[in-house]
Amino acid sequence: MDVDKIKTLIAFVGQSNVTELFVEEKGTAVRIFRNRDRHERAEASSPAGQPLVDAADGPIETGKSVQVKAPVFGIVHRAPSPNEPPFINVGDEVEEGQTLFIIEAMKVFNTISSPRSGRIARLSDLDGSEVQAGDVLAEIAI
Asked: Would you tell me how many other CB atoms lie within 10 Å of the CB of residue 115?
């Protein structure tokens, strides 16, 4: 693994909610982590080890709806693979914990789950596009 790639990985960890990253390539392993200071929130994880969206960087309640925001930067995918239907569409009823999106960043796939049960009222048109942490991906009417 070359130095430029390692620098890119370090930048990724520094700009995301990821606290630890392990990459192995051609017999070289790199572990990058950052310490959270005492003022930062603890990172929550699902049983699968995927980051959960929380009120600090994810859903924001606005009246009778909840905005689902991207917790990290990367490429947003509305479907599990290119030839499969999207996880959700406008008007769909969703359950709390249901997968809504996948955000790909540096070949790491982050599952974005529904923070609440409700109906998809609004959906961004960002499929396959780059998103920044904090970009609104969907709005769920509750």
From this structure: 24
Closest CA to 72 of 114, 41, 46, 111: 111
What does the pLDDT look like over 50-76, one tens digit per residue? 333 333 344 444 568 899 999 888 899
Where are the chain's structural domains? 3-33, 60-141
Could you give the C-alpha distances from 34 to 14, 52, 70, 83, 98, in angstroms and in order? 8, 18, 21, 37, 29
pLDDT at residue 49 is higher than 60: no
User: What is the CATH architecture assignment of 60-141?
Assistant: Beta Barrel (2.40)
Q: What values do phi and psi take at 80, rounded to 5?
A: -65, -25
Q: pLDDT digits over 5-16, tens only?
A: 877 877 777 777
Give pTM, 2 decimals: 0.57
